Amino acid sequence: MKKIFITTALFSSLFFLAQKSENYLQVGYASVCCGTPSDKPVMDYIKGFQQKNKIRSLEVYKQSGLGREGEYNLYIGTDGLSKTQKTQLVSGLKSAVSSQNSTRKKQSDGMVNFDAAETVKKADFSKARNITLYKK
User: Fold this and answer.
1) Which residues, listed in sequence order, are joined to residue 121 by a DSSP beta bridge?
2) What percentage of the chain has pLDDT greater than the value 90?
3) b or e along 23-41 (b: 16 or more beta carbons within 10 Å of the residue's beta carbon)?
4) Rounded Cα–Cα distance for residues 114 and 74 (Å)
5) Are 17 and 54 in contact (CB under 8 A)?
6) Which of 36, 39, 78, 113 could form an SS bridge with 28, CB 3.0 to 4.6 Å?
7) 64: DSSP letter
8) Which strand (E) or helix (H) includes residue 60?
């Protein structure tokens, strides 16, 4: 039992130490009745943003298991960006989220939530569960 605990603690600490960013933007996916909306518009924007700004990769993590209908959050690392790039990323995410929310079916499709003023710190990840690196 001790060996399992030590092994788990070791791998957990390596996961959190491997993260490069200290600050993350949070995009939340909530359900109304029939599941969560797709993350495709947001991820398409992020891929385009990376190509346009010649950024090799952004850290994107997914926290799943937040509700009965598959609610989840995406966390996007921002420490590797300049101030203007971060401003562009935030405005583009706002646009992608509002566009996705305006085209949803009000009675059945879930909502995408994004608050640019809210940043999540690396220390908050140590308290969270079910966080994995997002596969693009």
Assistant:
1) 23
2) 37
3) ebbbbbbbbbeeebbebeb
4) 10
5) no
6) 113
7) -
8) strand 60-63
Contact in structure between 50 and 57 (CB atoms under 8 Å): yes
Q: Across all residues in the chain, what is the average pLDDT?
A: 82
88-110: burial string, b at 16+ Cβ within 10 Å, e else:
ebbebbeebbeebbeeeeeeebb
DSSP one-letter code for 38: P
How far is CA 134 from its chain centroid? 8
Confidence of residue 130 (pLDDT cuts 50, 70, 90): confident
For strands 60-63 and 23-30, give the pairing. unpaired
Q: Note the residue count of the chain.
A: 136
